[in-house]
């Protein structure tokens, strides 16, 4: 059998390159391919540099040889057992938050829609702070101590996510109502965290403050495993919902006209995003503003009509791993990675608010 003839690619000015293989044709948008591939290369280099930094410095070539199985025993132990869990957790958390932010922002058609503003990360904080503060008091505190901080944070995020879904649902989900109810849940969760901290012992309050800033310190493979398993399930579902998501951005009436099962698609998108956030926050705490900033960066780099899922996830991983590397090596004192992401993300949030006000007026 002869190979199918490949027609010369026809380049369009705005949409990309049209490639035809026999009777099959498609549009290749090169920016949407180059950005994820570049993000992967940057992520590999950042991870290798991060794995080599510490009290026992290891060069990038030696790190790469160790990852390929060619390192000596000492390097294997330092890189694979002591440093790799931190980098892997940061990578997975950034990937999950980037994808979740892209899902929320595309669905709500609002760049302000993110797990931070919708209250999900603060819901995880309620669970974690309750597990820290109440673990020594009564039967309820004993139950929280048995659960542990990661599982309590997971349950807190899922609970707020279910409340967000249930309160927003009215024969479908409206993006504007989603943001408003999310802000209300964020306020309630913040008040609960403040109340718990005011009743905490000083050492419990200090431990709780460290957790709610978001940190990758002392992470182990036990922290990475549940998140990895969750992403194995959730990421294919998110990519599978990409077609419906692309239609949902044009409005409910257009989606119905194109044959999308509106309520099913809306429920699937929101629940997948909630799951990604819940597992990410349970692994490393609420690393804020990643899900808010990264999808908009990916949107501008790829030049598409909506935040791309894959590029957003990879850029989220680059941001978290890179921020953790900066906090450990550049700053005079090591800080939780959530502090740096907040410093980077807060000005962007203010810019979005000012820009939206100018457009409104």
UniProtKB/TrEMBL annotation:
TM stretches of this protein: 33-52, 87-108, 120-141, 147-166, 178-197, 224-246, 267-297, 334-354
Superkingdom of origin: Bacteria
InterPro entries (alphabetical): ABC_BtuC-like (IPR037294), ABC_transptr_permease_BtuC (IPR000522)
Gene Ontology process terms (BP): siderophore-iron import into cell
Entry keyword set: Cell membrane, Membrane, Transmembrane, Transmembrane helix, Transport
Cellular component GO terms held in the UniProt record: plasma membrane
Subcellular location: Cell membrane
Lipid bilayer topology: Multi-pass membrane protein
Listed GO MF terms: transmembrane transporter activity
Keyword Transmembrane helix attributed: yes
Main location (coarse class): membrane
Nuclease among keywords: no
Classification via Pfam families: FecCD (PF01032)
PANTHER family: FERRIC ENTEROBACTIN TRANSPORT SYSTEM PERMEASE PROTEIN, FERRIC ENTEROBACTIN TRANSPORT SYSTEM PERMEASE PROTEIN FEPG
UniProt record similarity statement: Belongs to the binding-protein-dependent transport system permease family. FecCD subfamily.
Name listed for the protein in its UniProt record: Iron complex transport system permease protein
Organism, scientific name: Blastococcus tunisiensis
């Amino acid at each position: 059998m002869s190979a199918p003839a490949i027609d010369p690619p026809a380049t369009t000015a705005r949409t990309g390159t049209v490639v035809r293989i026999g009777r099959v044709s498609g549009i290749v948008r090169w920016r949407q391919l180059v950005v994820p591939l570049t993000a992967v290369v940057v992520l590999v280099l950042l991870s290798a540099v991060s794995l080599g930094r510490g009290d026992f410095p290891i060069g990038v070539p030696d790190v790469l040889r160790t990852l390929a199985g060619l390192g000596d025993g000492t390097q294997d132990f330092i890189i694979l057992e002591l440093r790799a869990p931190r980098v892997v957790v940061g990578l997975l958390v950034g990937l999950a938050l980037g994808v979740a932010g892209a899902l929320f922002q595309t669905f709500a058609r609002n760049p302000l829609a993110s797990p931070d503003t919708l209250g999900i990360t603060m819901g995880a904080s309620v669970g974690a702070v309750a597990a820290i503060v109440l673990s020594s008091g009564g039967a309820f505190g004993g139950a929280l101590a048995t659960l542990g901080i990661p599982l309590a944070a997971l349950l807190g995020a899922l609970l707020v996510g279910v409340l967000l879904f249930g309160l927003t649902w009215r024969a479908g989900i409206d993006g504007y109502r989603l943001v408003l109810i999310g802000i209300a849940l964020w306020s309630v969760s913040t008040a609960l965290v403040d109340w718990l901290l005011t009743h905490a012992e000083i050492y419990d309050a200090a431990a709780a403050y460290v957790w709610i800033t978001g940190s990758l310190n002392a992470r182990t493979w036990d922290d990475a495993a549940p998140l990895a398993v969750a992403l194995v399930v959730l990421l294919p579902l998110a990519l599978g919902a990409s077609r419906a998501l692309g239609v949902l951005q044009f409005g409910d009436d257009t989606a119905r006209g194109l044959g999308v099962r509106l309520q099913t698609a809306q429920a699937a998108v929101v629940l997948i995003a909630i799951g990604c956030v819940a597992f990410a926050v349970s692994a490393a705490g609420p690393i804020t503003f990643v899900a808010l900033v990264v999808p908009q960066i990916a949107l501008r780099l790829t030049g598409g009509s909506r935040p791309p899922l894959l590029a957003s996830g990879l850029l989220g991983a680059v941001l978290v791993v890179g921020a953790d590397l900066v906090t450990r090596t550049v700053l005079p004192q090591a800080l939780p990675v959530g502090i740096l992401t907040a410093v980077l993300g807060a000005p962007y949030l203010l810019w979005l608010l000012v820009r939206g006000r100018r457009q409104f007026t």
